[in-house]
Design a protein that fits this description.
Layout (H helix, E strand, L loop, with lengths): L1 H6 L4 E6 L5 H15 L4 E6 L2 H18 L8 E3 L22 E4 L4 E6 L12 E3 L7 H8 L7 H4 L8 E5 L12 H8 L4 E6 L12 H8 L2 H7 L18 H4 E2 L4 H6 L29 E6 L4 E9 L5 E11 L4 H11 L7 E7 L12 H11 L3 E8 L4 H13 L7 E5 L4 H9 L2 E4 L2 E4 L16 H14 L14 E2 L2
Parallel strand pairs: 1-7, 1-8, 2-5, 2-6, 6-7, 9-15, 10-13, 12-15, 13-14
Antiparallel strand pairs: 3-4, 4-5, 10-11, 11-12, 14-18, 16-17
Length: 490
């Protein structure tokens, strides 16, 4: 694949391959070629969020560049200018602020752009887009593509001038499906567009011999098919959440001021700072208001969703979705939640639970008791909201039909954090429905299939139902359903 890219003439190239397929190394190869082909040019590396650039793109790129002989703080600097005594050349159009740029020894510069900060205004000679499936295509075409015009007279005959390289994995959400538009363009206009798609074994020569065996052992069959074999996941035709559309009700919310503060101008970018993030990186949680949670329980998969209502009551945001499988203990999930939200100033949490929380499988105490014990032990005031029996499937179906359609004035708008609640979004998209008698029922058969990655099944959607329907269900469907108000627990 790397050789194919090296000899390819197409200006716009899309690489959509499985995990371990060599995408990070390709980023480094593209950087190296641009550095040598267009000295002193200004280019960009684009991600959906600045957080993605800092925590995922740069660490792997630094390692790959080292394999190519480019070493950080020797051949290039991230987030700071090179020492003046080194007398490096400047780009023809140098950036004014070094914090968001990479400076190479021959004056070539890469600006680090993200769609949640600013991706317009510069003049660039070429660009690289990482995790391209998560990019907003409308913003890409309106804000970024027009900037690829820099130094035309100087570089117009160079091989890499106005090259755009997009790297991505298999899309998981409806919003990410736009990337397949490039597959059609490559068929129609093969002289301009290149589409490379393949399983992880496209890079097998650069992977350990037993790597695939390990992945088969670690991943479920369905996850192996998607992540390693690069097989497109099945699409649900008749969904339980019929009006849910992640293209319109999901959002990105990182606190970039906090992230910027982690980059000191004197020392530049240090990837170790971003190894373990917490709620301070989030811009959507309100630290002085209580949090609200609900869970789904089981012997081999447990999950927790967290939400908050906005101050004006117009929206309810699903802030995060965390999980643990049978490789960990139930207690670890609660500790994980407490650790992530340890900087939340108002240590009050409303905990909604139904009758399933009162089971314990092979455990010594019931689930809800464990949740309360661990959270209280870490300084949280837990307000127990015992909802009793879960409302019927059809009542939940009718509730979400109204909620996601946005037609009920008694309900807030429901929004979903695209990154922290990723698996909740996938779960909602994957929840199928069937007609039973006079109503609709959620199809939950995949929860019992050990060959299917449980993050993608209906577990998260059930926790999401418990929280939202218990909190808001009494406002709607009055007198026609099993929905009632949650009652205060012990």
């Amino acid at each position: 694949m790397q050789l194919l890219l090296a000899i390819a003439w197409q200006r716009i190239r899309v690489i959509q391959v499985g995990r371990g397929g060599g995408k990070s190394f390709i980023v480094a190869l593209e950087i190296k070629e641009l550095v040598y082909d267009m000295p002193q040019s200004k280019n960009f590396i684009l991600g959906e969020t600045y957080q993605q650039i800092l925590t995922r793109t740069l660490p792997s790129t630094i390692k790959a560049l080292a394999l190519l002989g480019f070493h950080k703080d020797l051949h290039y600097f991230i987030g700071r200018y090179p020492p003046k005594s080194w007398k490096w050349k400047e780009a023809w159009e140098p950036p004014l602020d070094p914090k968001h740029s990479i400076f190479f020894f021959n004056g070539t510069v890469f600006d680090l752009l993200s769609q949640d900060t600013n991706s317009r205004g510069g003049n660039y000679s070429a660009g690289i887009i990482d995790e391209a499936q998560d990019i907003d295509n409308a913003k890409l075409e309106s804000q970024v593509i027009p900037t690829m015009r820099g130094e035309f007279t100087r570089f117009k005959k160079h091989k890499t001038y106005r090259r755009l390289t997009l790297l991505c994995s298999m899309p998981r959400t409806r919003k990410a499906g736009w990337i397949f538009n490039y597959r059609e363009l490559a068929i129609k206009f093969p002289k301009i567009y290149l589409w490379i798609s393949g399983p992880s074994r496209i890079n097998a020569d650069n992977l350990p011999p037993d790597w695939f065996t390990d992945q088969k052992r670690i991943l479920t069959k369905s996850e192996y098919d998607i992540e390693i074999e690069n097989i497109e996941p099945k699409k649900i035709q008749s969904g339980f959440y019929i009006f849910f559309d992640d293209t319109t009700c999901s959002y990105t919310a990182y606190d970039n001021n906090y992230l910027f503060g982690l980059i000191d101008k004197a020392d530049g970018y240090n990837p170790d700072v971003f190894n373990e993030m917490n709620c301070l990186q989030d811009a959507d949680f309100r630290p002085d208001n209580p949090l609200e949670i609900a869970m789904d329980y089981g012997g081999w998969f447990n999950c927790i969703v967290t939400g908050q209502e906005t101050a004006d009551g117009n929206f309810f945001d699903f802030l995060s979705a965390m999980w643990i499988d049978d490789k960990g203990k139930f207690d670890d999930l609660i500790i994980q939640w407490c650790t992530y939200y340890r900087f939340h100033r108002n240590k009050t949490v409303y905990y909604y639970y139904d009758q399933t929380a009162k089971g314990k499988d092979s455990r010594v105490e019931e689930y809800y008791i464990t949740v309360c014990r661990i959270m209280r032990g870490r300084g949280w005031t837990v307000i127990q909201m015992d909802i009793g029996l879960q409302p019927t499937h059809n009542d939940r179906y009718e509730f979400w039909k109204r909620a996601h359609a946005g037609t009920d004035p008694d309900l807030p708008g429901f929004r979903y954090n695209r990154h922290n609640a990723k698996w909740l979004i996938v779960s909602l998209n994957n929840a199928a429905a069937k007609q039973v008698g006079g109503g609709m029922e959620k199809i939950k058969v995949d929860e019992k299939n050990h060959d299917i990655d449980q993050k993608t099944t209906t577990h998260f959607s059930d926790a999401h139902d418990t929280l939202a329907v218990a909190k808001y269900g009494a406002r709607t469907l009055k007198g026609t359903s099993s929905i009632g108000r949650a009652r205060l627990g012990n």
